[in-house]
Every structure is written in C-alpha cells, then in structure tokens.
Amino acid sequence: MAFPDLLHLYAFVHLCFSSYSGLTDLCFYVALQARGLKKHLKRLNAPKHWMLDKLGGAFAPKPSSGPHKSRECLPLILILRNRLKYALTYREVIAILMQRHVLVDGKVRTDKTYPSGFMGTCNSFFTPTSL
Fold it and tell me: Are residues 27 and 81 in the same domain?
C-alpha cells in the first residue's frame, strides 16, 4: 500500500490497532522512525585528513560500505579530483570511472565513493590529455 503522507499512514495504523488499548502511541512512534542509514555527509563533519576546504560546498562524498572504515579511508572521487587533479568536477570523475580506467588494489572500480585505504594502490590508465 502506498501512503501519500504521514497522516494517512497514521490513520491506517490507528484503524488497525484501535481495538487494542495503549498501542496507538507505539504505532505512531513506529511510523516516525528513520529509514536506514544517513546518505549525506556535511563537509564540516568529514574527517580532517581529507583536507577539504570549508567553503567548497555544503556536502562531501560519503564513502560506500567496503573494506575500510569510513573514518580511515579516502573516497575515490577525492583521490581523482582533489589529490591527483585528473578532473575538475564530480561529473568528470564519474566519466573517468565509467570508462573503467581506474584500478584500486588490482580491480577495476566504478563506484565513485569506493573507500580506498591508507596502503591501497590506485593505478590509472587515464591521463588528462587522453580525452
């Protein structure tokens, strides 16, 4: 069933459990819970070793789940854009990755937020003049 907003969902839950006493507060609490993990990362909350400038935007790339912890890794987009200067924008990094030019630890990676570790190797068959 699709509910257009929270009020309709609450009404549905209230109708289902109205015969039970004291469960309406519990049902409303269940309807207000978050849905999964946070998908955004503010730039000021990013780890300091990423060395992002404060005024470069509002958000930072949130690392995907992978072999390294999110506080101990560097997303692939930051390596290609900020460290190696292969691209100027987020979209250029996506274009490079989708051409399958980047190897991380010996495997082709197309995930822009793949967490690269401290001792990981990042090989590239891409040069900025090859476009």
Answer: no
**How far is residue 6's CA from residue 32's CA, in Å, rounded to a whole number?**
8
What does the alpha-carbon distance between residue 75 and residue 93 come to, in Å, rounded to a whole number? 12
* Domain co-membership, 65 together with 100: yes
Radius of gyration of the chain (CA): 22
CA–CA distance, 2 with 33 (Å, rounded to integer): 17
Domain, as residue range, for 21: 1-33
β-strands 107-108, 102-104 pairing: antiparallel
Taking alpha carbons only, the member of 84, 85, 77 closest to residue 116 is 77
The per-residue pLDDT for range 25-58, each reduced to its tens digit, is 545 555 556 888 888 999 999 999 999 999 999 9
Full-model pTM:
0.68
